[in-house]
Amino acid sequence: RGDALVRAAAPLDEQVALELAGAWLAEEERTVWDGGRLRTERVRRLGAITLTATPGSPPGPQEVADAVVERVRTEGAGAGLAALPWDEEARSLRARLALLHEHLGEPWPDMSDAALAKRAEEWLAPAVMSLVGQAGSRGSSGAAASSAGSRRFSLERLDVAQALRALLPWPQAARLEELAPERIEVPSGSQVRVDYGSSAAGSAGPSAATGAMDSAGTGQAGRPVLAVRVQECFGWAATPRIVEGRVAVLLHLLSPARRPVAVTDDLASFWEQGYPQVRSEMRGRYPKYAWPEDPWNAPATRGTGRRR
């Protein structure tokens, strides 16, 4: 109570208190998350009172994997997955697989937060264990300086894209590049990267792709977008389609300054109806670039080309 009054007291030596503590005195080694790093500490407690906390032995591969999987699940699938170091490659792969799952179904894996969390032992745990094993090998050879009590596991070094590939179905995995290619060759010969919704591709206009993803992605299939300069598409009549022809790629046609001048999934219609206006507006602004009257038969070019 806040108004309690101590009328008589006697000092109690720490050693005596510990000897009398009995079952109240306990020691344990536990893993603790420190931001994106996992460390172990040896804790000595008297009841709920922490007496000491010192660095513990380095966590083993299985221990680290269990801790990472538990974090993904206990923090909620979305928040837990967001703690992983998603780079552009990982987000793009997740979006590509989500697209295949949406249109082709099984065996292409579900990429939703809940599904990834549920199957974390299949794709995440093995990658974590491999990473811990590699770090241990470097440490034992002297390449990585760490003491037995201070070595920590960092999520920042995890290759999420490589981990996700563990979910690719066999033998269908060999068709990933065919069904949802990372790049598409345009008439100029350039290999242009397809944006599957892993970045804010929808900013080019009201008809642009939706489904921009956060740091981890949403696991929902977005509209695939190909952003390419108009000059590189001359002579291209058929809009590219992927996923066995089921999905039309949305084209963001760009000016020489790489600003969008049109968004379409119907190239033939654009050349007939939209291009004349684009040509009228752009040829004076970018006179060094080709703006032919007949885009159907003009050669596609990566450079400036010749004005006709």
- SS elements, strand count: 11
Please outline the major beta sheet: 5 strands, mixed
Q: For the terminal residues, how far apart are their CA atoms?
A: 91 Å
Average pLDDT level: 84
Q: Specify the helix fraction band.
A: 25-40%
Radius of gyration: 29 Å
Structural classification:
alpha+beta
The strand line-up of the biggest sheet is: 5-6-7-10-11
Account of the protein in words:
The chain has three domains: 23-55, no CATH class; 61-136 and 155-175, no CATH class; 181-201 and 219-307, no CATH class. It is of the alpha+beta class and 308 residues long. It is 31% helix and 18% strand. Strand 1 (25-34) and strand 2 (37-46) form a beta hairpin. The model is unreliable at 140-150 and 199-214 (pLDDT under 50). The protein contains nine helices and eleven strands. A five-stranded mixed beta sheet has the order 5-6-7-10-11, covered by helices on one side. It is elongated, with a radius of gyration of 29 Å.
